[in-house]
Amino acid sequence: MKRFDGFCQSCGMPMTMDSNGGGTEADGSRSALYCSHCYRAGAFLGSFASADEMIAHCRQIFKGQGMPWWKRWFYTSHIRQLKRWQKN
User: Fold this and answer.
1) Which of 9, 23, 65, 74 could covalently link to 39 via disulfide, CB atoms 3.0 to 4.6 Å apart?
2) H, E, C per residue of 17-75
3) 3-state SS of the chain: helix, strand, coil percent to 5?
4) Domain residue ranges of the chain, discontinuous segments joined by +
């Protein structure tokens, strides 16, 4: 089992937390890698060009939910290691 199996490979959200059951591929099938907040119809949502942009976005959402800074940091600290952000 890989280290981040079961987590969206774009934002890091646990896939079990996605009420839509994951994102969708171009053919309408469920994506096993990306959540519905990041991926739809075979394309990434938003204009995030880097892991740092995704981290800032997620932290802003968490801040709006009233999450303390240390939880915002903890929940986003692994994003750079996810598949979407790895250099090929």
Assistant:
1) 23
2) HCCCCCCECCCCCECCCCCCCCEECCEECCCCCCHHHHHHHHHHHHHHCCCCHHHHHHH
3) 35, 10, 55
4) 15-85
- Taking the model in full, what pTM does it have? 0.89
Q: Which amino acid is at 53?
A: E
Rounded Cα distance, 76 and 43, in Å: 22
User: Which amino acid belongs to residue 58?
Assistant: C
C-beta atoms surrounding 64 within 10 Å: 8
Give 8's pLDDT tier (boundaries 50, 70, 90).
very high
**How many residues make up the chain in this entry?**
88
Which helix H or strand E contains 61, and what residues bound it?
helix 51-64
